[in-house]
Amino acid sequence: MKFICLTLLIISGITDSISERYEVVGSADPVFAVAGEDVILPCSVKPNISVVDMRVEWFRSDLKDSQLVHLYEDNEVRNREQIQSYRERTKLNHPELQRGDASLKLSSVRVSDEGLYKCFIQSKSWSDDTTVDVRVEAVGRPPVITVDGFDHSGGLHLQCESEGWYPEPDLEWLDSEGVSLSSETTETHRNTDRFSVKHTITVHHSDDKIHCRVRLRHHMLETLIISSSNMFSSWRTSVIMISVFVVLSVIAGILIAVFARKNRDHDRLQNEKSRLQNEKRRLQHERDQLKTIIPKALTHLRTHKVNVILDADTAHPRLTVSDDGKQVRDGKRRTERVNRGKDRFDIYLGVLGKDGFSSGCFYFEVKVKEQTRWDLGVSRESVNRKGWISLSPEDGYWTVGLCNGKYQAYESSDVSLSLSVNPQRIGVFVDYEKGLVSFCDVESMSHIYSFTNQSFDEKLYPFVCLGYRYNTSPTPLIICDDY
């Protein structure tokens, strides 16, 4: 007995020493990237060892949902759960993995790429991670100076404008000596992910060089205008004539446009009104037909209702299954230790039903209301529950789900689903002999997706999942019994 205890202590000590010997390092300072260009996010193991046979995962630690950026596992890239905006833009340098370098190349940088990235490396005996802070700068268009007229004292109004910057840039006026001049008015606007700035100033000097400069931390653009005495005198002479001409032109243009547009709009509105009335009658007719057909179909499906109870022994350690086995949520606040048995999911937040079915038809309903990330359907009894899972029929899963705000069915390649409403309650119907797995939106009584002509050769179990790694929603998935 003493020998066994001593052996366990030695093994534990060896494991601890291995964990302490290696560390994952990145960059202590923020990594600056320019929008549209490529950037390298540093990550490596010190001292250098090969990470070819290890798990290398890059993910956004500052995002709430679906934060995977790049995953390398079992000597291959597995980016099925990758954030959509990163598709085809991430890459590891595979020869460098042999030297412990797991740096990530991010191509065609976008403003939305700014944030905190975590590089997680895991072997069979140790794991560690590091965080890389990425700051993105977008260089806008060169500033444009325009003459905006004179004031009553003869001062020349100048306006400087530039757009397409990120983050918000600084704009300043400078005289010929490089002395900063105070702007009279300033405007800043943000359009999607870029900033535009506009500053005005009044110049009273007859001869001077005026600079408009826009700058970020690492970039600067500048434009020069020379305000001469000729500019002041000629402007005073022509400004009245130009103003009168512009006013008369505008009035004439408005009158012509009003009459022409009035006639065009009348004809277009009449045609559109007629088209909408016909479309309304057609849709009303179809709706009346569906009101009688769909309820009968749903009633038929519900005759195959089965009592689904979730098996807590298969649930990912983060999940909390209710005592009656009807609800499951991300139990991130749970403090009790959970046995990580062979039957549990360890990466996906999945759980199976207790009872499987190997013949006939069966049907159950799951409430997904207010959940932002879920997958559900059925799976074979022998499915892999460890590591990276492909929720496709090839791997024994027949599922649909919601990920990154998009609904999809998980075939060998994902199928995007265009749904008219967001499902609140989903029905799952299986006909074992016909090889059919079908999904419907119970409340809108509409079909979602069907897997047809499938081949089943073992028990099928109900399967629900709250996504990958973690789920921020406090709302549970609920197996429904109230029908």
UniProtKB/TrEMBL annotation:
Q: Which GO terms describe its molecular function?
A: signaling receptor binding
Q: Where are the transmembrane segments?
A: 239-260
Q: Which branch of life, at top level?
A: Eukaryota
Entry keyword Membrane: yes
Primary localization: membrane
Q: Does the keyword Lipid biosynthesis apply?
A: no
A biological process term (GO) from this entry:
regulation of T cell activation
Residues forming the Ig-like domain are 36-135, 142-227
Question: Would you name any one GO CC term?
Answer: external side of plasma membrane
* Compartment list: Membrane
Coiled-coil residue windows: 259-293
Annotated B30.2/SPRY domain ranges read 288-483
SMART domains given in the database record: IG, IGv, PRY, SPRY
Give start-end of the signal peptide.
1-17
Which keywords does this chain's UniProt record carry? Answer: Coiled coil, Disulfide bond, Glycoprotein, Immunoglobulin domain, Membrane, Signal, Transmembrane, Transmembrane helix
Q: Which InterPro entries match?
A: B30.2/SPRY, B30.2/SPRY_sf, BTN3A2-like_Ig-C, Butyrophylin_SPRY, ConA-like_dom_sf, Ig-like_dom, Ig-like_dom_sf, Ig-like_fold
Q: How does it sit in the membrane?
A: Single-pass type I membrane protein
What Gene3D superfamilies would the database entry show? Answer: 2.60.120.920, Immunoglobulins
The record's SUPFAM superfamilies line, in alphabetical order, gives: Concanavalin A-like lectins/glucanases, Immunoglobulin
Q: Name one Pfam family in it.
A: PRY
PANTHER family in alphabetical order:
BUTYROPHILIN, ICOS LIGAND
- What family classification does the UniProt entry report for this protein? Belongs to the immunoglobulin superfamily. BTN/MOG family.
Protein name as catalogued:
Butyrophilin subfamily 1 member A1-like isoform X3
Please state the gene responsible for encoding this protein. LOC113048347
